[in-house]
Design brief:
Layout (H helix, E strand, L loop, with lengths): L4 H8 L5 H12 L1 H6 L2 H7 L4 H10 L5 H14 L12 H19 L2 H13 L2 E6 L2 H15 L5 E3 L2 H9 L5 E6 L6 H12 L3 E6 L5 H5 L2 E4 L12 H21 L3 H11 L6
Parallel strand pairs: 1-2, 1-3, 3-4, 4-5
Helix pairs in contact: 2-5, 4-5, 7-13, 8-13, 9-13, 10-11
Protein name: MurR/RpiR family transcriptional regulator
InterPro entries: Homeodomain-like_sf, HTH_RpiR, RpiR-like, RpiR-like_SIS, SIS_dom, SIS_dom_sf, WH-like_DNA-bd_sf
Keywords: DNA-binding, Transcription, Transcription regulation
């Protein structure tokens, strides 16, 4: 288990069994309290059982509850941002604070080697298609825009029928980037599976670390702050996805510095579009 314990729990909680999810939610809501609880107290607080708490700890890579609490204590001692954000004075402060936490947790979740691998695949691709529905479509458009700015033409496909046709005609050399915050959107999963079956390299961007989409992809990039049915398109979830997009494009220019020249060219050709 890495030092990003709370970020990992937040990313995985939505895909746990109900009993384990209650344990995770209880820990995330009051991590300081968890440190002072016995396994029995945490089981009671989460309306689960001692066996569920033990399974929860082992699923996270720990030998038991005490081992889990030790890791949690270390994180809370060195990472103040992992604590509850408290009671912001207004909605704007709440948005700012949750966005900061989301960005920092996403930084912890990002595997640098995966970003480098994804960038290599994108640079070598003959075709790059970016797919996302609704709020995830915003991220797809942003990725296509950022890559076009550095001379890597790509398409943002927000229509499921067009995306299925593109996936169905994919071939080796194609990179399909599929974005879904929940990782469970039927169209997103279908497109990932179809594109991969045709030989495309499929990159998934999601706020869930375990989901049908992630299982269907060659490479997964996980953002923090998973959404709920009532918070679809939430600002912290979107900004964490955009961080991954910027990290990808930054890595592409690092691997191929000539892309910076193309960035200047694209800036020049649109310069007359502003007053």
């Amino acid at each position: 288990m890495t030092h990003a314990l709370i970020a990992s729990l937040r990313a995985a909680a939505g895909d746990m069994t109900p009993a384990l999810a209650r344990v995770a939610d209880t820990v995330l809501a009051q991590p300081d309290t968890t440190l002072r609880q016995s396994i029995t107290e945490l089981a009671e607080a989460s309306a689960s059982s001692e066996a569920s708490v033990m399974r929860f700890c082992r699923d996270q890579g720990f030998t038991g509850f005490q081992d889990f609490k030790l890791a949690l204590a270390k994180e809370l001692a060195t990472d103040e941002r992992a604590r509850d954000i408290g009671s912001p004075t207004d909605d704007i402060q709440r948005l700012v604070e949750t966005a900061i936490i989301s960005l920092r947790e996403t930084e912890q979740l990002i595997v640098r080697e995966d970003i480098a691998k994804a960038a290599r695949q994108l640079l070598a691709a003959t075709v790059v298609d970016c797919f996302g529905i609704a709020a995830s479509g915003v991220t797809a458009q942003y990725l296509a825009y950022k890559m076009t700015r550095i001379g890597k033409l790509s398409r943002a496909l927000g229509d499921a029928h067009l995306a299925v046709m593109a996936a169905g005609t994919a071939q080796p050399g194609t990179v399909q980037v599929v974005i879904s915050s929940s990782g469970s959107t039927v169209d997103a999963v279908r497109i990932a599976e179809l594109a991969r079956s045709k030989g495309a390299f499929v990159i998934g961007i999601s706020n869930r670390s375990k989901s049908p989409l992630i299982a269907a992809c060659d490479l997964a990039l996980i953002a923090s702050w998973p959404e709920t049915p009532l918070t679809g398109g939430a600002f912290p979830s979107k900004i964490s996805q955009l961080l991954i997009v910027d990290a990808l494009v930054a890595e592409m220019t690092r691997q191929d510095p000539g892309r910076l020249v193309l960035l200047s060219r694209t800036a020049e050709v649109v310069s007359d579009r502003s007053f």
